[in-house]
Design brief:
By secondary structure, this protein is α/β, with parallel strands linked by helices. The protein contains 15 helices and nine strands. The longest helix is centred in the middle third of the chain and has 16 residues.
């Protein structure tokens, strides 16, 4: 039995789906089963519990031999995830796979608090002696749907405090694919994997990709991190979250996200998804009126919009 913690999130939900599709028995720890009916419908066993409730963790661990661990960012993250680690140790779980942060942030003296929290959890897992695999992704492509799409669709502006830093953004589904493969194999014990997309690009190049995908001109505006922090606070984000995002922006601005790994291909046997493919898939989120002119044209002509997008941004 594989226990998935974080199964209602971007990565965990896909991990559960992939595992079930591969025939693995899967249990998901969820706070509210009524909000996880989609998981149950896929054949996932639901265990009601919370990372703050040790008794519920012990119940969820019964019969579990492998655990996948990911959770929402939280100033108590290391303590909450540590509860899951302790429960796994009590249950003699044989393999822990944890989604961590981008490698330059994961250290006891790292530049961002959440990165320091990830390091504490990784260190705690290593101390148990339980075989582990740590996945260290960087910037998720899916984050663009929350952080960039609203302004792009309203104003045609891609605003971000990233200067001209190249970032090897990764699709969260590829992180999940790596995790699912690792969870069903004994060949990845005590490994740390950086997980990225196939190439690094800056936000000006990203604006060009989105322009090609939507058929509408999109312009990149580099915003100072301090201004971005003010906007986030006006949106009601808590101080710790704002500080984390600013710290991470500063880290990306100095090139921390530029390194490209081959983990997705090496572990899963297939290449990672491209930003061009992601932009074509989610083009409607970035355009005014919901349906892009390019997609309408592609539909009439029978052409593949993803192929057209990639031709716009092919490296020279």
């Amino acid at each position: 039995m594989i226990l998935v913690i974080g199964a209602t999130g971007k990565i965990g939900g896909e991990v559960a789906r992939l595992l079930v599709s591969a025939g693995s028995p899967v249990r998901a720890l969820v706070r509210n089963p009524s909000r996880a009916t989609a998981l149950a419908g896929q054949g996932v066993e639901l265990a009601t519990g919370d990372l703050g409730d040790a008794a519920s963790l012990d119940r969820a661990m019964q019969g579990v031999d492998r655990m996948f661990l990911v959770s929402a960012q939280d100033p108590r993250q290391a303590d909450l995830q540590g509860n899951a680690v302790d429960a796994a140790l009590r249950a003699s779980v044989g393999h822990i796979v944890k989604v961590s942060g981008i490698s330059p942030s994961v250290s006891p003296g790292g530049p961002a608090e959440i990165g320091r929290q990830h390091w504490r959890t990784e260190h705690r897992i290593e101390e148990t002696g339980v075989p582990f695999t740590f996945l260290r992704p960087g910037f998720f492509m899916q984050n663009l749907l929350e952080t960039a799409a609203p302004m792009v669709s309203k104003l045609g502006l891609l605003a971000a405090p990233m200067a001209d830093a190249p970032i090897a953004m990764v699709d969260s589904r590829d992180i999940a694919a790596v995790a699912a493969t690792v969870l069903t194999s004994d060949n990845h014990h005590d490994r740390v994997y950086d997980v990225t997309g196939p190439r690094a690009f800056d936000h000006k190049q990203l604006a060009t990709v989105l322009t090609g995908a939507t058929g509408q001109r999109i312009r990149y505006v580099n915003t100072p991190p301090g201004l971005a922090a003010k906007v986030l606070r006006r949106q009601g984000k808590p101080d710790w979250h704002v500080e984390h995002l600013v710290d991470m922006a500063e880290l990306f601005r100095v090139g921390a996200g530029a390194t490209v790994s081959t983990t997705v291909r090496d572990v899963t046997g297939r290449p990672p998804r491209t930003i061009e493919g992601f932009a074509a898939e989610h083009a409607n989120s970035f355009v005014r009126g919901g349906v892009s002119r390019l997609l309408r044209t592609a539909a009439r002509s029978g052409r593949d919009p993803a192929g057209r997008t990639s031709s716009v941004t092919r490296p020279r």
